[in-house]
Amino acid sequence: MIIALAGRRVDAPGAAAARFPLEHSAIVKEKIKALFVSLKPNALVTSAACGADLLALEAAGELGIQRSIVLPFNQQLFRSSSVVDRPGEWGSIYDQICKQAATEEGVQVSDYPQNDDETYRRSNIDILEEAKTLADKYDSTGLAAVIAWDGKPRDDGDITDHFRKEARSRGFSIHEVNTLTK
Fold this sequence. Notes:
Layout: E1 2-7, H1 25-39, E2 43-46, H2 52-63, E3 66-71, H3 75-82, H4 90-101, E4 106-109, H5 117-137, E5 143-149, H6 159-169, E6 173-178
Helix pairs in contact: 1-2, 2-4, 5-6
């Protein structure tokens, strides 16, 4: 089985609506880890933003699951725009995981424009395509998408919901991890 994962970043200070409070990080990581134990994947494919992505990458590393990171643009720019711009100690986790992943399934970096929602939609497709590529490599028939979120789209352009819909349309089994419950 290959898992593709996308989810919420931790909430920004003063966020209008709670979607992933920083204080839920440890329990969300444990929920993701328990799901991985249950699914027994060969590999995880995700981005590396603060919140769900990095927590999943940590959990996969602890379980010995190979990790593949898909980034929409260069690592340093991604770090500044999607990792260290929210509360928490995400920068050092990101640096360590990117270094480790480079020796596993690697870090795939695209050259999409920054600050464009279409960039993140394309990156969602890249994550799903990389999961399919790894499934072929491992002769694995199982493809699962894990969505770590609050369970509802923000609006019609919600990037996490886009990932969920794309994964479903491609035949991935869907598993959700709630970022609001303890």
